[in-house]
UniProtKB/TrEMBL annotation:
<keyword id="KW-0472">Membrane</keyword>
<keyword id="KW-0812">Transmembrane</keyword>
<feature type="domain" description="Fatty acid desaturase">
    <location>
        <begin position="67"/>
        <end position="333"/>
    </location>
</feature>
<dbReference type="InterPro" id="IPR005804">
    <property type="entry name" value="FA_desaturase_dom"/>
</dbReference>
<dbReference type="InterPro" id="IPR012171">
    <property type="entry name" value="Fatty_acid_desaturase"/>
</dbReference>
<dbReference type="Pfam" id="PF00487">
    <property type="entry name" value="FA_desaturase"/>
</dbReference>
<feature type="transmembrane region" description="Helical">
    <location>
        <begin position="58"/>
        <end position="81"/>
    </location>
</feature>
<keyword id="KW-1133">Transmembrane helix</keyword>
<dbReference type="GO" id="GO:0016491">
    <property type="term" value="F:oxidoreductase activity"/>
</dbReference>
<protein>
    <submittedName>
        <fullName>Acyl-CoA desaturase</fullName>
        <ecNumber>1.14.19.-</ecNumber>
    </submittedName>
</protein>
<keyword id="KW-0560">Oxidoreductase</keyword>
Amino acid sequence: MRRDHDELLLSPEQLEELGRELDAIRSQVLADLQERDAMYIRSVVRAQRRMELAGRGLFFLGFFPPAWIAGVACLAVAKILDNMEIGHNVLHGQYDWIGDPDIQSKTFEWEWMYPAEEWRRSHNYEHHTYTNVLGKDRDIGYSVLRMSDGQPWHPYYLGNPLYTLILMLFFEQAAALHDVRVDQLVTRKRKWSESHATLLRLRRKAGSCALKEYVLFPALTGPLFLSTLLGNLAAGLIRNIWAFSAAFTGHTPQDAQTFTEQQIEGETREHWYYRQLMCSANFNGGKLFHILTGHFGHQIEHHLFPDLPSSRLREIAPQVRSLCIKYDLPYNTGPFLRQLGSAWLKVFTLALPSKEHVVGRFQGARRRREITR
């Protein structure tokens, strides 16, 4: 259930103190950044490149089923690492301090269809500034789903589960279209000319990725073209399902709250911190699992400190949790499958109209009948 943002669980003094303590955690990590952090991200980049090389090399043996399966697995892991632990986190500027041109946020480009330039604006600014604010954060339902009871219900949303499934299977393609704002173009709230520049950048980036994945690399394997093409498609599908599930689970379980634009008017830094705690969710896992999910399992900490290296989030999670206990605030976490199931339950629940909506429609119809008598 949504709680209004003005129904704060803290007094002004407590809120200010919470802000100071969270600022202190961030400052502590920034002051401690060192060579081990640089070594970590470079090791992940090396692992990603080796996995991709192994996957593409194994497709040359695609006539042997076990080699093809191994190739799909290696390439899928490479795509997951490039997308989540490397791309998402590098684009947040988490490693700009190193000075390595290969992992600079302003020049980095990842290997999927969403242009990094568009991502930096829509994700880094819009999503992280207005996290879970209806009408401002377009990541709520990706402009396709109903993921909050604050979104007016429409019969269209009866397809919520189907739309979610399609979004999961084609996550790369759907994400790439995010900034085109197709929903606004269809409803004529936006002119095609306003999306023209974005479409051009998307066409260049998506065209380049599609050419490499579905023409160039398969062609390199000669008579195994179809086998390699299917392998690339399979690896991309695995990445899509994995990345969507991790992102979905960190943002939309049942207890993740949403806010209105009116509720964040005049929002201070302390209020922003408070909102991140109320609208984010974590999930449990081991070290390797967190690496393969881009540390999305620490979404609470990431939303609080998006510029801190992802590998440090696990270290500070106990401190953040302790603050939540101290101030009697929720710390939404649990096993991955339980959190994922909670998010999917929300999809099915919000596909249906709320009781208030049904009652309102019934009363409105009754009033109209009375007027016509």
